[in-house]
Amino acid sequence: MKLLRYGLPGQEKPGVLDAQGRVRDLSGHIADVAGAALLPESLVRLRGVNTESLPLVAGTPQQDLRLGPCVGNVGKFICIGLNYSDHAAESGMQVPPEPVVFNKWTSAIVGPDDNVEIPRGSVKTDWEVELGVVIGKGGRYIEEADALSHVAGYCVVNDVSEREYQLDRSGTWDKGKGCDTFGPTGPWLVTADEVPDPQALKMWLEVDGKRYQNGSTSTMVYGVKFLIAYLSRFMSLQPGDVISTGTPPGVGMGQKPPVYLRAGQTIRLGIDGLGTQTQKTVQA
């Protein structure tokens, strides 16, 4: 299934994409694509629903029908840094001996095609196409062999980053990662049964039509199973938590000379089978 949330910001309703690429309303079955609705038993029940019998929502998704973030009420937005060796090299950093873990604040989360705001005073706003992993079954001390059974599904994330805030000022990375609008998520949550191998997905990103990132999840240093098990040592993972798993090379910081975003540009990005995002950059 491709689960989604549609409507005005803050008023999104749950939906599912049908075989014709139209949105069907799921409000009669779940209150939101969030929390308990992402548990394995809930997803089994939703798969039993006849999609064609659901109310058809007017409009074409991502055209005249806005899609919100594909997961609502996210509890934790956990991110992994330097998780592709070639991206670490372009950043002038070593591949870490353990995953680099940081947070994006949940106030950063926006829809897949909502505007990205360049923060006031920013000089180094950057892009990062990433695979998002959405937790379904929660847990602590999860075994790596069992980790994928805890995944509700996968989605596209743009881990927008302000490099000066992240790297040039003292403190943690978080303040350069969690600015408002720095977490476009979606367009839809593709349930795990439709993604047989999360380590075999091609991904790409363009700015104003120029392709900067071409990569694959096959080159992750720490794969999805390892990351879930690893993170669950330090925190409980809960239904609806989002893990953004790192980016391949081609970010603006890695260009020679570096290239950063400015207001008035268009970002397009996507991952095979998980959909695409398109954002306009605007000044905050």
The beta-strand count equals 18
Mean pLDDT: 96
What form results from the Cα inertia axes?
globular
Low-confidence stretches: none
Identify the strand order in the major beta sheet: 3-2-1-13-10-9-16-4-5
Measured distance between first and last alpha carbons:
35 Å
Percent range for β-strand residues: 25-35%
User: How would you name the oligomeric state of the polypeptide chains in this document?
Assistant: single chain
Spatial extent as radius of gyration: 18 Å
Q: What is the share of helical residues?
A: under 10%
The count of helical stretches stands at: 4
List keywords for this structure.
4 helices, nine-stranded mixed beta sheet, 10% helix, 18 strands, five-stranded mixed beta sheet, 284 residues, mainly beta
Give a description of the structure.
There is one protein chain. The chain is mainly β and 284 residues long. It is 10% helix and 29% strand. The chain has four helices and 18 strands. The protein has a nine-stranded mixed beta sheet, with no helix packed on it. The model has no long low-confidence stretch (mean pLDDT 96).
